[in-house]
Design a protein that fits this description.
The protein has 212 residues and is mainly beta. It has one helix at 5-22; strands spanning 38-48, 55-66, 71-83, 87-104, 107-124, 127-130, 133-145, 150-161, 168-178, 183-194, 200-210.
């Protein structure tokens, strides 16, 4: 993995901002995404710190199903694509996440586990190759309400393939806002440290709508 100095500064700034917000926040059941039955769709832009691939465009879809007042189950599908004259990638993945959370006066503290399967097609100087594998991930974080219908979500996750050597440590900050009782917008930024590969900065923007 590359130098951790930018990540340390990034996370420190997020935590400092969150600690300042907590003093003025009150719990609000209308803010945030955790514990809600919804479907969603995101566009993604992944900027690579690499001379080989500059960026990757993608999209993902998901459905979140609360099982009780402490457990959410999320099913998701994502895809990504990049291509230039010498290198290219087509990525598809299906995954399921079980998230457990505890609501307190400042929001929702949570821990989640993910299992999934990825299908990748990699092009190197015109030669195509398959690179498929199952993967797992562990995530912890905090969703904090900001006012009546807005929340921020700070998370840290570790992901790897079952056959190893693909470890990714992700630092993520998200903001979500409910424009109505049925419709929300979401934006996020994530810094990804990837073993044996350049780091990336991932941006997403999407929508969520309530399922009745």
């Amino acid at each position: 993995m590359n130098s951790t100095k930018p990540v340390v500064l990034f996370v420190a700034a997020l935590l400092l901002g969150a600690s300042g917000l907590q003093a003025q926040l009150t719990p609000n059941a209308e803010a945030g995404l955790i514990g809600r039955r919804y479907a969603g769709f995101d566009f993604t832009y992944d900027r690579h710190n690499s001379d080989v691939i500059d960026y990757t465009f993608g999209a993902d879809a998901r459905t979140n199903l609360p099982l009780n007042d402490k457990l959410d189950l999320t099913f998701g599908y994502d895809l990504a694509h990049t291509n230039d004259s010498d290198h290219g990638l087509n990525h598809n993945a299906l995954h399921a996440t079980l998230l457990t959370y505890r609501r307190n006066e400042y929001g929702n503290a949570y821990f989640a586990g993910t299992l999934g399967q990825a299908w990748n097609r990699v092009k190197t100087f015109g030669v195509l190759a398959r690179d498929d594998d199952a993967f797992w991930a562990l995530t912890t974080g905090y969703e904090i309400p900001v006012g009546a219908v807005t929340a921020i979500n700070l998370g840290l996750s570790y992901r790897d393939a079952f056959r190893g050597n693909r470890a990714t440590l992700q630092y993520r900050a998200e903001a979500n806002h409910w424009f109505s009782s049925d419709f929300a917008g979401v934006v996020s930024a994530s810094y990804n440290q990837i073993k044996n590969a350049p780091d990336t900065l991932l941006f997403t923007a999407g929508v969520r709508w309530m399922l009745r």
